[in-house]
Design brief:
The protein contains 2 helices and 3 strands; from the N terminus they run H-E-H-E-E. By secondary structure, it is of the alpha/beta class. It is globular. The two termini are about 20 Å apart. The relative contact order is 0.20.
Amino acid sequence: MAADPHVAPDRFPAGVTPVEATAEELAQADAVVLLVDHDAFDPDTIVTNAGYVLDTKARLPHAVNVERL
């Protein structure tokens, strides 16, 4: 699964299901990898709901579930 509101659903690679980065989707993910720093993604929602986050943009606040690359 992947979320990016700036990419049309038909532009995702085959086998990748586009989703919205909702609290429910984040909570269900095994891991969340933040690859872009769009304002469309709410940092607090990500940190609060994701079990593990790899933040490649150093955009999210420090938290026990956030690892920065």
